[in-house]
Every structure is written in C-alpha cells, then in structure tokens.
C-alpha cells in the first residue's frame, strides 16, 4: 500500500505548491543504502539541484562541491524511483534521472532518519494516529528558496492529507479535513508576530549575552518569549528599565530609566541595548553587574516621537555619547525604507571626547558608505594628532555648515547629556529654528529625546 501511495504522490511532489503548504508526513517507504564513495558511477550520472548556487549541477559537479565541504561520503535515499542525497547539514536534495523541468526548484526535503527529533514532535504523533505508522519522510515546500519558512521543522500542502486519505480510506477524509483545518490554524497562529511590550506593566526578560565594547560600554542582548516575538517598539520611541538598586545607606530603591534599543522589530526574538556605565549611574551599574541568565524588568513603549517614512525632507541630527541610539534607530529605518520610496536625507553630527568614545562608528561609517542620503560628521573634544573632523563643542558654525537650514520640511533631532541638549536648543533658536519646548512634541521642529 505504501508503495502504491508513493507512486500516486510522486508526480505531485515534483510540483511547487507554494505558500499553501502546512504539514503532512507522506506514508511512503524509503530505503537507505550503505554509504557509497564519490567514485560511484551512478551518482555521477544524476542531476543535482544546488540550493546554495540556485542552479542545477551534474552529479560530477555536485561531488566536487561536497568534497570541498569536507564530506567523504553521502547516503542515497529512494522514494518511488526518486533519489534523495543529504548534505552535511542534513538537508536533502532531490536527484533523479527525470527531466530537469520536473524538478521542484523550491522543494527541500528532510528525512525522518536524518532528523530523528521529528519523530517526537506533536505532528509526528498525530501522523502516527492517522497513518497507523511513523512518517518515513517529510517534504518541505516554499514559494522560493529565499522565502522558505519552517514550521515545526516540516511543511507540505494540506491537500495531500486529504488526497492520501482518499486513496487509502475514504471514510478518513472528514478526519483528514478536520486535521488540515487544525494544522492550518495552528500554523497561522504560530507564524503571527507577537508584540510583547506593555506600557503600564513591567515584564522580565532574560539576559542572553553581553558583548564588551570597551572598558565601560557593552551591548546587552535579551531574549524575548519566542523567536516570533518582537518588542513592538515604534521607531523613535524608547523603553523603561526598572531595577532595585543599592543606595549609600544600605537600602535598595527601585530606579527607572529610559533607553532606546539599537535593534528593531525587524529582528524578532531578542532586543539589544547599548549601555555606557557611569560611576554614579544606578541602572548602568546594575546592568554592568548582570550575569547571563538574569532577568531585567522592562515596560513600554514610551516617548512622543514616532518615525514615519518621508515625514520630513531632511533630518539634522546631533548626538552625544549614548545619545546615538535613537538616531541609529531612525537612520536604519530610513535606509531600510529606500526600496519602498523613503527619500529622507540625514546629516548627523556625533560628538564625543576621544576617538575611543565613538560608539558604533563602524556601523555608522558602513551606513554612510552604502547610502548616499546619509552623512555622518564626527566632533571630538580631545582629538588625536592629525584629526580632520570637528574639534570641541558643537558650535553654531558646525550646525550651519553641516546640517540643513531651517525649513518647514526640516526637523532637528537632539540627544545627549542634558547640558549639551540645553545649549543646543538655544543655539538652534539663534540660527532660525523654532524655539524648542521644555518637553518636545512630535510636531516640533526641534525635537529633543
């Protein structure tokens, strides 16, 4: 019976079913032979679809590629006349003597034998009840190689569930249809991006890793509840961090401070904070003392600024120290939006004390090199010999020469130490920008984070 089912399903497998796929373990036997050396003449004659190069290779070329990856042999898996050849990563390429145009160019295969953990999955358990046996092989299909998505490690069109039942036992079709609906609903729900932030309630997130940037600067990566979770933080807004910090009198006090992650919602599963530790900084010292696995209390979003594409023609930005974090969020959002029509120009003045204090300089330089609409200008209070950038405090002349002139479609963004921001507000007003409010609003021409 399994062989008969395989013969019926084999032509269907060689078609690209696209995004309708969910889950189906195909009830068809495969046979694994002993490992064969690359000199096997039968292997040379077969046609391989190379998923990395995205083109077809002959068996001889595929062998050369696999040798370069350090493999010494591979195993043939056969299903109804088709051959599956696994690579080191357990991915299995479809290989068969049939015509090239019958190959499913976006079809990737996993075998139950190579992925034993699948046998313990909820899907495999349901499959055993449905098919009265463990699934031998699982097919994975997607629209394109670049857009392939994994769900419980396996994908297949739900139609094959009903078709398989119709071939084997017609009375199972209603149950197969019900299972297909349940799996489809589960897939839809599991693939939804989930926002985790709550504006009025702290939640705890685990510290996954800490990357030391300098003696007093580090990037802290915190896990979100799942790989599909995002903070749900609009571009330009920040989060509040709370911690019980020790006080000089020996007591502890809950301190809350605001920070802007340097990661975004386009990077699900985690968020990154760039933190500079100060001797008198309660939260920064607390974070510096955190160990991997410890929890941090976070709530949000907070803030009055929300970036939308083309909200202005030109941004002028002035940042000092860790004040670069909200600017970086906006810069990255603008550049990501170029393909969809975001034409916003950005000029950034980034002020620091020494070259060693310039945070994320490599990232900023790369962005400026790759995008002609973004320019970065560095200013140092204590420059080294041969420094060609700005020197000292950010002055009116620097703003005039490096940033856009005041206009209705221009916005000036400020972020840095309070004395610096306070002085820049007055300087901007003297240059013709509208007077900044004590607490900035989104519509303000001069906005201080």
UniProtKB/TrEMBL annotation:
InterPro entries: CBR-like, Cbr1-like_FAD-bd_dom, FAD-bd_FR_type, Flavoprot_Pyr_Nucl_cyt_Rdtase, FNR_nucleotide-bd, OxRdtase_FAD/NAD-bd, Riboflavin_synthase-like_b-brl. It is a single-pass membrane protein. GO terms for cellular component: endoplasmic reticulum; mitochondrial outer membrane. One of its GO terms (molecular function) is cytochrome-b5 reductase activity, acting on NADH. Its cofactor is FAD. Signal peptide: none annotated. It catalyses: 2 Fe(3+)-[Dph3] + NADH = 2 Fe(2+)-[Dph3] + NAD(+) + H(+); 2 Fe(III)-[cytochrome b5] + NADH = 2 Fe(II)-[cytochrome b5] + NAD(+) + H(+). The keyword Mitochondrion applies. The keyword S-adenosyl-L-methionine does not apply. FAD binds at residues 257, 259, 274, 276, 283-284, 325. Keywords: FAD, Flavoprotein, Membrane, Mitochondrion, Mitochondrion outer membrane, NAD, Oxidoreductase, Transmembrane, Transmembrane helix. It is found in: Mitochondrion outer membrane. Its main location: mitochondrion. Residues 200-308 form the FAD-binding FR-type domain. Pfam families: FAD_binding_6, NAD_binding_1. Pathway: Protein modification; peptidyl-diphthamide biosynthesis. NADH-dependent reductase for DPH3 and cytochrome b5. Required for the first step of diphthamide biosynthesis, a post-translational modification of histidine which occurs in elongation factor 2. DPH1 and DPH2 transfer a 3-amino-3-carboxypropyl (ACP) group from S-adenosyl-L-methionine (SAM) to a histidine residue, the reaction is assisted by a reduction system comprising DPH3 and a NADH-dependent reductase, predominantly CBR1. By reducing DPH3, also involved in the formation of the tRNA wobble base modification mcm5s 2U (5-methoxycarbonylmethyl-2-thiouridine), mediated by the elongator complex. Monomer. Component of the 2-(3-amino-3-carboxypropyl)histidine synthase complex composed of DPH1, DPH2, DPH3 and a NADH-dependent reductase, predominantly CBR1. This is NADH-cytochrome b5 reductase 1. The lineage of its organism: Eukaryota, Fungi, Dikarya, Ascomycota, Pezizomycotina.
């Amino acid at each position: 019976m399994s062989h008969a089912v395989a013969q019926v399903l084999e032509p269907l497998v060689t078609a690209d079913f696209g995004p309708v796929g969910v889950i189906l373990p195909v009830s068809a036997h495969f046979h694994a032979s002993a490992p064969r050396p690359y000199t096997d003449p039968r292997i040379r004659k077969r046609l391989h679809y190379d998923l990395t190069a995205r083109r077809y290779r002959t068996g001889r070329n595929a062998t050369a590629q696999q040798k370069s990856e350090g493999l010494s042999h591979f195993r043939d898996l056969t299903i109804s006349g088709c051959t599956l050849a696994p690579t080191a990563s357990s991915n299995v390429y479809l290989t068969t003597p049939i015509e090239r145009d019958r190959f499913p160019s976006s079809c990737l295969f996993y075998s139950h034998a190579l992925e034993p953990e699948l046998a313990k999955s909820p899907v495999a358990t349901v499959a055993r009840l449905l098919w009265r046996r463990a699934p031998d092989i699982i097919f994975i299909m997607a629209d394109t190689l670049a857009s392939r998505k994994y769900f419980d490690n396996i994908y297949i069109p739900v139609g094959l569930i009903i078709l398989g039942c119709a071939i084997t036992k017609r009375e199972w079709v209603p149950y197969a249809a019900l299972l297909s609906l349940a799996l489809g609903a589960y897939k839809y729900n599991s693939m939804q991006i989930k926002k985790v932030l709550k504006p009025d309630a702290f939640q705890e997130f685990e510290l996954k890793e800490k990357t030391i940037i300098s003696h007093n600067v580090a990037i802290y990566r915190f896990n979100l509840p799942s790989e599909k979770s995002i903070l749900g933080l609009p571009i330009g807004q920040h989060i509040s961090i709370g911690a019980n910090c020790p006080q000089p009198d020996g007591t502890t006090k809950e301190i809350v401070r605001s920070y802007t992650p340097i990661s975004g919602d386009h990077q699900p599963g985690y968020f990154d904070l760039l933190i500079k530790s100060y001797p008198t900084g309660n939260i920064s010292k607390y974070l510096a003392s955190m160990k991997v696995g410890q929890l941090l209390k976070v709530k949000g979003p907070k803030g009055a600024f929300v970036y939308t594409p083309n909200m202005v023609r030109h941004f002028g930005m002035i940042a000092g120290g860790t004040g670069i974090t909200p600017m970086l969020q906006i810069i990255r959002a603008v550049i990501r939006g170029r393909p969809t029509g975001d034409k916003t120009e950005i000029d950034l003045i980034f002020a620091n004390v020494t070259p060693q204090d310039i945070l994320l300089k490599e990232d900023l330089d790369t962005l400026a090199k790759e995008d002609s609409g973004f320019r970065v200008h560095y200013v140092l209070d204590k420059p080294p010999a041969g420094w060609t950038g700005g020197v000292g405090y950010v002055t009116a002349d620097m703003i005039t020469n490096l940033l856009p002139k005041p206009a209705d479609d221009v916005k000036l963004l400020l972020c840095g130490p309070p004395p610096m921001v306070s002085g820049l507000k007055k300087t901007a007003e003297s240059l013709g920008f509208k007077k900044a409010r004590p607490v900035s609003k989104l519509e303000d021409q001069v906005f201080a984070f």
